[in-house]
């Protein structure tokens, strides 16, 4: 879907066009039965290639983090998890070095650890105390607080 949107509205960036010319490796994108001209798709520019690659990289690393987290939770090492990830997606050392994946995992694990430390954890007693405080702030049943309860009838109606 992202590629479709990028090709519908290509963005020009001369710096990206010059960088893209240096790359030798390319992969082919098949549109299946869809005719690209019918949907108004235009050729890729350097900027759209950059945005698509950035999206692909974020997707790859998100999948890596989920895979390594699952495997390490099951008791294996992170190195073993990264190796199985590379085998699963048929990644070679030339595509993405294993060191890059390991560093990404270490950064992700460190960020997750600090996020857990920063999160406010309440013990059971503290949660009960907070609930009691919240309930006491509510109006008591049987006593109508202003704006709540039965409507007040005018004196002439009584």
Write a structural description.
- The protein is mainly α and 158 residues long.
- The chain has one domain (2-119).
- It has six helices and no strands.
- The chain has helices at residues 2-8, 14-21, 46-73, 78-88, 98-118, 124-137.
- Helix 1 (2-8) runs antiparallel to helix 3 (46-73), helix 3 (46-73) crosses helix 4 and helix 3 packs across helix 5.
- 6% of the residues are buried.
Order of helices and strands: HHHHHH
Give the radius of gyration.
29 Å
Q: In angstroms, what separates the terminal alpha carbons?
A: 68 Å
Number of domains: 1
Question: Which range does the strand content fall in?
Answer: under 5%
Tell the overall outline.
extended
Number of strands: 0
Secondary-structure-derived class: mainly alpha
Poorly predicted tracts of residues: none
Main pleated sheet: none
Put simply, the count of helices is: 6
Topology:
Elements: H1 2-8, H2 14-21, H3 46-73, H4 78-88, H5 98-118, H6 124-137
Summed up:
The chain has 158 residues and is mainly alpha-helical.
Features:
mainly alpha, 158 residues, 6 helices
